[in-house]
Amino acid sequence: MEKKSANFKSCLQPRPNVLVSCRGINGEDNALAVAYCCNCSYDPPMVMVGIVPSRYSYGMIKDSKCFVVNLVGKDNKVLFEYLGSHSGRVENKLKIAGAKLSEAVKINATVIDDCPVNIECSIVDSIVTGSHEMFIGKVEYVHADASLVNKDGDVDYSLIEFL
């Protein structure tokens, strides 16, 4: 197989895509589509999300020191695309998109109930990596659709058709 040099930018395509929801210190809720998201610790459980500082949600997350990672299923495609292509600076995009929301249990943020799994996180650290700031969040609480939780309380991710 012949190989050819390729561009460095976004040479990996992280998966799954997620929606990160947050609340500003003024009480305003927002969410954005995020491609850079992964587990970064098993014990204690932590996840990492990469946010570009120019994004409207960036300041909310930085100030509130928390966020929710909402996993996106295929049936959330329209919501994901809308939230990823409109800015909370100019509109209440959660309301306009008709997102079903609820309050987080352990942190001061909103949960997008349309998504099958929601992971509440409190920020324990961050690192600027060039174009993004990687926020490391300690997992505080996990919401999951009841049909996805097995008898041991684990989420069966094989049942989710990710976007």
Task: Write a concise synopsis of the structure shown.
The protein is mainly beta and 163 residues long. It is built from 3 helices and 9 strands; from the N terminus they run ββββαβααββββ. The radius of gyration is 16 Å and the shape is globular.
List the helices and strands and how they pair.
Elements: E1 18-23, E2 29-34, E3 37-41, E4 46-51, H1 56-64, E5 66-71, H2 77-85, H3 93-97, E6 101-103, E7 110-112, E8 117-128, E9 133-144
Tell me what you see in this structure.
- By secondary structure, this protein is mostly beta strands.
- The protein has a single domain, classed as Pnp Oxidase, Chain A (Roll), CATH 2.30.110.
- Helix content is 14%, strand content 36%.
- It has a seven-stranded antiparallel sheet. A two-stranded antiparallel ribbon has the order 6-7.
List keywords for this structure.
163 residues; mainly beta; Pnp Oxidase, Chain A; 7-stranded antiparallel beta sheet; two-stranded antiparallel ribbon; 9 strands; 36% strand; globular
Distance between the termini: 30 Å
Question: What proportion strand?
Answer: 35-45%
- Please give the radius of gyration in angstroms: 16 Å
User: What would CATH call the homologous superfamily?
Assistant: Electron Transport, Fmn-binding Protein, Chain A
